[in-house]
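User: Second chain of the day. Same drill as before.
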Amino acid sequence: MRIEKCYFCSSPCYPGKGIMFVRNDSKVFRFCRSKCHRNFNRKRNPRKVAWTKAYRKTRGKELAVDSTFEFEKRRNRPVKYDRNLMGKTIMAMQRVQAIKERREERFHSNRMKDAKPEKVAQARVEIEKHAELLAPAVAKRE
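Assistant: Same format as last time:
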């Protein structure tokens, strides 16, 4: 069973789901849902549509360059089934996924590090603006 990627938004397309469009030059485009197919037909650029993975990667919101992406490449070389090899492959896939999740978490925390002081400053401004609402609560506590 092969899980393809949507041409427009890069989400997984499971067998029997989604839409397949074949152009006159025999290029195959797979779409996970009609929303992606409609946007493709309207000639929209996925890098400019905010909900796609391409947009998030071009804007620096998601990890774009990492060695773990090499493991996701499609390989068409047939391999004879071997139980030991399959077990090792599954263990390796789980290990790569764990590494990828840790790196994405680290990337996200580094990205959000600069936003924290700004968020605190906005909260202080909001508290100062509506101090009269908080005065009765503070008086009851004391």
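The mean pLDDT is 88.

User: Great, on to the next one.
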